């Protein structure tokens, strides 16, 4: 074992970590090979290699593929990976599935699923929202009933991203109807490839189809797939949501090509776009460009602060700030790109990629301002849990769920 992966990570010098990761990348990373198959088996092989070498989740304990690094040490690894353009590290920050399982799974469960989740060997989806329970998720009515060594689930979910290809869904279902609404919910790891799961695709405003309705009829879940305590699913959900919001606060889709909208490249592109349009000297547009870039910089700093505060097993309301900021950035950037193109933004076709990008951004900005909890809900969370303002009135909060009226 090298110096950098010695027994006491706190005593390992930053230089030793940098040397070790640089030399590992020099021996293993081949960007040309990856370009050819980044999203196919080659991409998965690479991810598996990163996991086996303990670079995927360096803040995690050694027994779970990590190195017990503190945040500053982990950032060194992430910086070196980013420098050569290699993916696969930082999963302790962004892999919501693996983080949730690591936090709430028992030993057996973690052994079975943590490596598979880190190595992207299984596809996942989130079975949270229902037709009558989105912002008010604690009002969910999908039920899970115990039958021997299994749970039997009946109900309907909606807006489920990736359900068509998922092997498992993280499912919230009601297991106790006598408790108040937040208290009777449990969190399951639900096998999706079974006859009772019917997935119907929904068409989005961008003409894509990433999310679905999911009908659950007598779906069977092994009792061992309960994550966290029975009827204690609300807390598990808060942790999973915090990771999701953190991911959404950190990055979002830019143009349709899938490039990140919040990148440095995006900033240069805005300036290039203004130059191309001959409007770089327009003081109002210059101010708008500067505002978008400032939002992006501020959000990156705020996200770093929130990440530092997110410890295993806790949820951080500050993540809501990052998600809200990213939503604002996306809407502002879309508006700016449209303004820069002026009437040219109406020329929507593959012959006018600038217009396609601007229009896609305009429509897709709603992904971040609705998915994972809407902007209004993030503002409520910030008001109540960050600023300490009085809570919204909730007349059904302490009522047994069976007696709560539904529309
Ligand atoms: C791109 C995308 C992907 C998604 N992926 C998934 C997924 O994989 N799995 C999943 O389970 N769900 C997913 N969702 C669903 C998403 O979480 C819900 O759409 C969201 O929580 C809002 O719920 P709703 O659509 O039922 O809206 P509603 O809750 O009906 O809200 C309607 C409007 O009322 C406002 N509102 C509601 N309550 C309040 C309040 N108390 N204070 C102020 N305003 C309020 C909302 O902000 C919103 O503007 C996804 C959504 C999107 C857009």
Topology:
Blueprint: H1 14-28, H2 31-37, H3 41-52, H4 71-84, H5 91-94, H6 96-104, H7 107-118, E1 124-127, E2 143-147, E3 150-161, E4 168-174, E5 185-191, E6 197-201, E7 211-222, E8 226-227, H8 233-250, H9 264-276, H10 283-309, H11 319-341, H12 353-370, H13 375-386
Helix pairs in contact: 1-4, 2-3, 6-7, 6-8, 8-11, 9-10, 10-11, 11-12, 11-13
Bound molecules: flavin-adenine dinucleotide.
Written description of the protein model:
This protein folds into three domains: 3-94, Butyryl-Coa Dehydrogenase, subunit A, domain 1; 124-231, Butyryl-CoA Dehydrogenase, subunit A, domain 2 (Beta Barrel), CATH 2.40.110; 251-386, Butyryl-CoA Dehydrogenase, subunit A, domain 3. The chain is 45% helix and 13% strand. The chain is globular, with a radius of gyration of 23 Å. A four-stranded mixed β-sheet has the order 1-4-5-8. It has 407 residues and is α+β, with helices and mostly antiparallel strands. A hairpin with a 2-residue loop joins strand 2 (143-147) and strand 3. The structure holds flavin-adenine dinucleotide. Flavin-adenine dinucleotide binds at residues 125-126, 128-129, 134-135, 159-161, 211, 367, 370-374, 376-377, 380, 392.
